Amino acid sequence: MRVIVAKTLEEMGKEAGAIVAEGMRAKPHYVLGLATGDTPKPLYRELIRLHKEEDLDFSTTVSFNLDEYIGLPATHDQSYRYFMDHELFNHVNIVKANTHVPDGMTDDVETHCLVYEATIEDVGGIDCQVLGIGRNGHIGFNEPGSSLASRTRAVDLTESTIEANAPHFPNPEDMPRRAITMGIGTILESEKIIMLACGPKKAAAVAAALEGPVCVKCPASALQLHPDVTFVVTEDAATGLTLKFRR
Ligand code: PGA
User: Fold this and answer.
1) How far apart are CA 3 and CA 213, in angstroms?
2) What span, in angstroms and rounded, lies between the C-alpha atoms of 86 and 18?
3) Of 15, 66, 212, 242, which is most buried by a Cβ count within 10 Å?
4) Where are the beta strands (DSSP E) in 77-186?
5) Looking at the domain assignment, is residue 7 inside a domain?
6) Are 137 and 144 in contact (CB under 8 A)?
7) Within a domain: residue 246?
């Protein structure tokens, strides 16, 4: 796996943005897999800049988000659909109908997940999947213990994830305890994967993902099985790595 250690969040966003933009410019109808959370925000700022200043065209881009909370409507400001609209989609020329986020309000989760997978397959699969990492090593909402072959499904969130995300809710008790997430098996089928991480709280998870054993205790360790993964991490998230991965 390739590891790029960035000095700043802005640099992390620019490094990742350059990889995404190169793919988008090389292939029309590029299929992007997208992530939410604080980590990918510098990447989305860079993609917006590239669109506005360097003509990066999203008009034929298709996107699939990793996950969504069960029970939050798209209008809720903590829903991932709301996040994506505000952090990226509303600022570029992507066609909203081509953007896919699991529906947290579906009344048939199982069918919805099957259709989500089938829709990814119908467009030829994901060309480039952007990921963040949880402090516990999760990717999407695939918490420790998730099967490395898992597919899109409903999952229970762990205490560590609830503790990390609940402060974003005005009333932390309102944070949903369940979510829909693409599976690890789904993620591994992407052509290319970019993992972003920043901050000292991610250092142990980044080290376990890159240098630990491939095991369900650290879902991100499954990325070691993929042939085209680039970690773009800030220095404070890289402190657990051995020298061979440091610049
Ligand atoms: P964060 O979340 O970017 O808000 O830290 C990442 C994750 O939990 O996957």
Assistant:
1) 17
2) 21
3) 66
4) 99-100, 128-131, 153-156, 178-181
5) yes
6) yes
7) no
67 is catalytic: yes
Ligand 1-lining residues (CB < 6 angstroms): 37-39, 132-134
Among 39, 80, 84, 139, the mutation site with the greatest number of ligand 1 atoms within 8 A of its Cβ is 39
Among 67, 68, 103, 127, the one annotated catalytic: 67
- Cα–Cα distance for residue pair 225/189, rounded to 1 Å: 11
| pTM greater than the 0.90 cutoff | yes
Could you say which residues of the chain have pLDDT below 50?
none
Q: What is the pLDDT of residues 32-80, one digit of tens each?
A: 999 999 999 999 999 999 999 999 999 999 999 999 999 999 999 999 9
2-6 vs 99-100, strand pairing mode: unpaired
Cα of 198 from ligand 1 centre, angstroms? 9
Cα separation, 143 vs 134, whole angstroms: 8
Burial 31-69 (b: 16+ CB within 10 A, else e): bbbbbbbebbbbbbbbbbebbeeeebebeebbbbbbbbb
Q: What is the CA radius of gyration of the chain?
A: 17
Q: Assess if residue 206 is contained within a domain.
A: yes
